[in-house]
């Protein structure tokens, strides 16, 4: 074997793809333009840098489709998910990580791998030959984006992804705030106190909404449209949908008791989640925003407990480029017009760190099989990976295609019992995850057997 696999983008998907392919004996060149060419959102040149939340969301592999993806990636020796567990922070049932050592560990693992070479040159064109995976994510460079648009014959599709602010813990007034996960969820004391809570009464909440609606916002360039992904809406966009929207979203007051005033029920609660292992930084949960920096500081300091907040990072907004994958990619994640090119990660129309990593895992294994002359069994549709890749490469309606998180709605229906009615949700989700684990394990076992036979 003489041909190398080139992977463009060193985020979650690209890092995972490189790891999977290299561990199958493939020589990999990982192209990451940072730190030579910077982006709006990234702070370092590290691979696998987390630019938005520090959470991989639910780790429940029996009742949650995201947790099931975690389980499948662990079973496949996934670099991203195993590293996330290594740098885990208390988060009340979610898998949150200490983002700086997480990215450093990913970087160290890839740079020290004997089958991986890192290049920091920017790729601006789609290559005519060679085997390539493009995993450039939501911040695909302008030049490369134009090359992709030219090749696909379609205009780039885009929505805007917003970044939540991060607060220094020692600037939070703990005489007003307290530590508690909703409904005291978690197996340990740290988990049950994973979130910092700032309560609002109705008067404070109403004033906060007024200020939020009136604040200066980032302007869009001519010709751009604010097509937000619903799972990552800026708080001001939620507020524009109705004054009570935030109270039923990230500011819902349920499952919490204020120890400073246990007899008073908060009208709304702002939650912050620990962002590093030292506990010196907290991010404001669900507070993605497109407010200008000066306005952010003023509005967020209206939150009880954050009156004197110091911000390690304010929120931001960037354009998120993605393909209309159902029309452009085949079942192997290859560009139909150029089958030597695969796409992976958020640019394919999946949303979130977990889903991006999962698509990188698949792309890396599929490309490695091509380069080593082996044949992979079809990715089982009953697995979480299979349900997601089937959705983006053909299961979704192309005319209305939008970025998607993994969820049980993407899974094939279960064989329900003839009598006795439909299963309850808990039993149904457990049946989905049991079926998925069996299918995924079988797929992995078949690959190991084939590799051993070579």
TrEMBL record:
<keyword id="KW-0274">FAD</keyword>
<keyword id="KW-0520">NAD</keyword>
<keyword id="KW-0489">Methyltransferase</keyword>
<keyword id="KW-0808">Transferase</keyword>
<dbReference type="InterPro" id="IPR036188">
    <property type="entry name" value="FAD/NAD-bd_sf"/>
</dbReference>
<comment type="similarity">
    <text>Belongs to the MnmG family. TrmFO subfamily.</text>
</comment>
<comment type="function">
    <text>Catalyzes the folate-dependent formation of 5-methyl-uridine at position 54 (M-5-U54) in all tRNAs.</text>
</comment>
<feature type="domain" description="MnmG N-terminal">
    <location>
        <begin position="5"/>
        <end position="373"/>
    </location>
</feature>
<keyword id="KW-0285">Flavoprotein</keyword>
<keyword id="KW-0521">NADP</keyword>
<feature type="binding site">
    <location>
        <begin position="9"/>
        <end position="14"/>
    </location>
    <ligand>
        <name>FAD</name>
    </ligand>
</feature>
<protein>
    <recommendedName>
        <fullName>Methylenetetrahydrofolate--tRNA-(uracil-5-)-methyltransferase TrmFO</fullName>
        <ecNumber>2.1.1.74</ecNumber>
    </recommendedName>
</protein>
<dbReference type="InterPro" id="IPR004417">
    <property type="entry name" value="TrmFO"/>
</dbReference>
<dbReference type="Pfam" id="PF01134">
    <property type="entry name" value="GIDA"/>
</dbReference>
<dbReference type="InterPro" id="IPR040131">
    <property type="entry name" value="MnmG_N"/>
</dbReference>
<dbReference type="InterPro" id="IPR002218">
    <property type="entry name" value="MnmG-rel"/>
</dbReference>
<keyword id="KW-0819">tRNA processing</keyword>
<keyword id="KW-0963">Cytoplasm</keyword>
